[in-house]
Amino acid sequence: MGTATLQVNLTALGNNHAALDARSSADTETAAVVKADGYGLGAPQIASELYTRGVKTFFVAAAEEGEAVKKVCTDSTVYVFSGYMREDAACYQSSELQPLLNSPEQLLQWKADMGSRSFGMQLDTGMNRLGFEADEFAAVAPDAVNSTLLTSHLACSDEPDNPMNGGQLKNFRQMTDSLVHDTHIARSLAATGGTLLGPDYHFDMVRPGIGMYGGLPYKDAQAVVTLKLPVIQSRWVKQGESVGYGAAWRADKDTRVATLAAGYADGIIRSLSAIACNAEVKNSDDNQSLYLYADGKPCPMIGRVSMDMITVDITALEVDPDAMELLNAEQTIDYVAARAATIGYEILTACGARYRRSYTR
Ligand SMILES: *Cc1c(COP(=O)(O)O)cnc(C)c1O
């Protein structure tokens, strides 16, 4: 009992990375994205497992995240997506991180503060979020020849037929082909989705995140997480009585109800309530429930998600369980995400810091 446990299967993580590596071209390096504390699963543990398995390059969102990775993967190269901000100067120096510089201003500041320290660059090929525009990049060619990696990011790689993919690929080539021809600077365009788009998108390095963690668009991924929530109390609710806030779920027959110790403050996002309440279910596209599993048996969540609690119909169980699973190989992050009109990435990264994490092999 006590707190909920987020179990991370490091073997499944390693298998997913190896499978994505096998899907990428033979001379393409398969790096790993461990931003947002390893998609909520613990960046040091995730990175050191992959490092042990031979991964040499990691990507994070912010410099402090890079520091944590570098501590456990001392000989790795760590790139920072957000590029260079002055307040992170000490962190970049002490941990020998490389920024992916995003603008002429970041490049100038990096050179002024860091001299000839290594850096990568991020180019905007159509997403309009981060990176040098084509004209800006052309203007800094004398500096770009000293970069270690040229990257860009695809906006629609989870949709193989989306014309954005080919358009961004073309822009990336146009911006970088001649420079790379002369310098052999490495290039990276693909995240998980791009890795699955095929060899045109692989270049020298692919950098998957979500696929390693068991999420779409990598359909063949093995489940990495099991989320186990303790049962605090169980009770009979009589026909006609209601459960939870708003009295939004009402029993149409006598029902055994378990109250579990995790809620929206723990990443079980509250919009999941809609499919768990008979008053609200009409608003959802389908009637599929969200389930909590006890010894492999699915029991539907009922009533609204509270801050620290959810309620579950356990009438079908012979004995009251001590704990139930919200995420496992049967009920994946993407299944839960679809019930909440979001994506697996959000379900994973929302898994609160409140959970005790355990790592298995
Ligand atoms: C998050 C991110 C990735 C990894 O994306 P996945 O879809 O999780 O594989 C790669 N590159 C950039 C720039 C990112 O922001």
Question: Helix and strand layout, with pairings?
Answer:
Elements: E1 5-9, H1 10-23, E2 29-30, E3 32-33, H2 35-39, H3 43-52, E4 57-60, H4 63-72, E5 77-80, H5 89-95, E6 98-101, H6 104-114, E7 120-122, H7 134-139, H8 141-144, E8 149-151, H9 163-183, E9 186-188, H10 192-197, E10 205-206, E11 225-237, E12 242-243, E13 249-250, E14 255-260, E15 291-294, E16 297-302, E17 310-313, E18 323-327, H11 333-339, H12 344-350, E19 356-360
Bound molecules: pyridoxal-5'-phosphate.
- Biggest β-sheet: count, sense, barrel? 8 strands, mixed
Count of helix runs: 12
Q: Kindly report how far apart the N and C termini lie.
A: 23 Å
Query: For this entry, what is the oligomeric state of its chains?
Result: single chain
Distinct ligands = pyridoxal-5'-phosphate
Helix percentage: 25-40%
The CATH C-level name of the largest domain is Alpha Beta
Shape: elongated
Task: Please identify which CATH superfamily of the largest domain we are dealing with.
Answer: Alanine racemase
Please mark out the parts with pLDDT under 50 across 5 or more consecutive residues, or reply none: none
Number of strands: 19
Q: What structural category do the secondary elements indicate?
A: alpha/beta
CA gyration radius, whole angstroms: 23 Å
Percentage of β-strand residues? 15-25%
Overall mean pLDDT: 95
Give the domain tally.
Answer: 2
CATH architecture of the largest domain: Alpha-Beta Barrel
CATH topology of the largest domain: TIM Barrel
Folded structure, characterized:
It contains twelve helices and 19 strands. The protein is elongated, with a radius of gyration of 23 Å. It has helices at residues 10-23, 35-39, 43-52, 63-72, 89-95, 104-114, 134-139, 141-144, 163-183, 192-197, 333-339, 344-350; strands spanning 5-9, 29-30, 32-33, 57-60, 77-80, 98-101, 120-122, 149-151, 186-188, 205-206, 225-237, 242-243, 249-250, 255-260, 291-294, 297-302, 310-313, 323-327, 356-360. With 361 residues, it is an alpha/beta fold. It starts with a strand and ends with a strand. The strands form four sheets. Strands 1, 11, 14, 15, 16, 17, 18 and 19 form an eight-stranded mixed β-sheet that branches. A seven-stranded parallel β-sheet has the order 3-4-5-6-7-8-9. It folds into two domains: 10-206, Alanine racemase (TIM Barrel); 225-360, Lyase, Ornithine Decarboxylase, Chain A, domain 1 (Beta Barrel). Helices cover 30% and strands 22% of the residues. Helix 3 crosses helix 4 (63-72) and helix 11 (333-339) packs across helix 12. Pyridoxal-5'-phosphate is lined by residues 33, 35, 81, 153, 191-193, 207-211.
